Amino acid sequence: MKITCKQQDLSRGLSTVSHAVSSRSTLPILANILLATDHGRLRLYATNLEIGINCWIEAEVQEEGSTTVPAKVFTELVNSLPQAPVDIAVPHDSHTASVKSLRTSSDIKGLDPSEFPLSPTTEGSEPPVVIDAALLKEMIAEVAFAAADDDSRPVLTGVLVQVGNERITFAAADAFRLAVRTSPLPGDSKSRSDILIPGRTLTELARILPSEGTVEMIVTPNRSQVLFHTENVDLLSRLIEGTFPNYRQIIPKEHTTRAVVETKEFAAAVKSVIPFARDSSNIARVKITGGSGEGIEPGTFTVEATAEDVGHNVSTINAAVDGPDQQIIFNVKYLSEVLAVMSTPEVAVEVTSAARPGVIKPVGSADYTYVIMPMSTNR
Fold this sequence. Notes:
The protein is of the alpha+beta class. The protein has six helices and 25 strands. It has helices at 7-17, 71-80, 133-143, 199-208, 263-277, 332-339; strands at residues 2-6, 32-38, 41-47, 51-58, 60-63, 66-70, 85-89, 96-101, 104-109, 129-132, 158-164, 167-173, 177-184, 195-198, 214-219, 225-229, 233-238, 257-262, 283-289, 299-307, 311-322, 326-331, 346-351, 358-362, 368-372.
């Protein structure tokens, strides 16, 4: 193999695929990155057997071929090089890559590329789901954080993806909250089977996706993996086996009190109580109080937290309240995380009682729902 490419392109490609490099595998080859010529470009590929990432960069190919190089050493070397052309050459009878750039010359010992796991084929797959890259990043941000970290219930570490009737839905839940985001898929009326994608995988995907263009989501024929394909980057992930809970049963059908507040004010109020809630099981008391009957005085929305060794904090903001006064205890971390992904100027908080789940929704959009379980009032 003999190629020449730009240092900045190679550095960017290595940064992209490094998210899939295995750090604790018993297979030494998984600590390497595959370099291979591919139709006039250089393909970089890394996998930890959970996910695999391909990235293509522009290159001048003098000789076709492939090799593997240790990810850590090669990435550190490339990042140390000046922004100038980089020459990479690998003799036919060797796995040692010669890397040259301006005044620097290095030899890096690699491993036989034939040992590297192959990317599964998607031939024979059902038609791809085509989605805008910026929209996909947004949907991941609004849902993936709600997936469980604990592997004791594997299905809850995943994000449920449903496609049908020209809509795509992402849903994630742990034992204490649920996030659901839907979006139109104009022209795609074909229904497909539900899939469960690891939440951590989608978080990695959001990091490497371009901010514009489209993404193809393709499920492999054996339905064990999903491929996200863009012009220059692919991410392949295993799917989680199992049945996701019927999340629609979890979403309350009605409420007794609804408070509309400014998103930034709500987020600031929550942020101010976090230091006090942190040492008290993240308990935050939310009080919703209606205004005067004539509408002269606005209602109020109060968030407060108390920690014996730290002190007490209470933050009150104006709210448009419909319904009787309410008091409910939420985990302040779960409030903070959802408010961080809310993009509308106002959000609505809907509650029924201190013992029933609350719902947070963006005002002016029906595409997002966040259900949060109350904490015990005995604490």
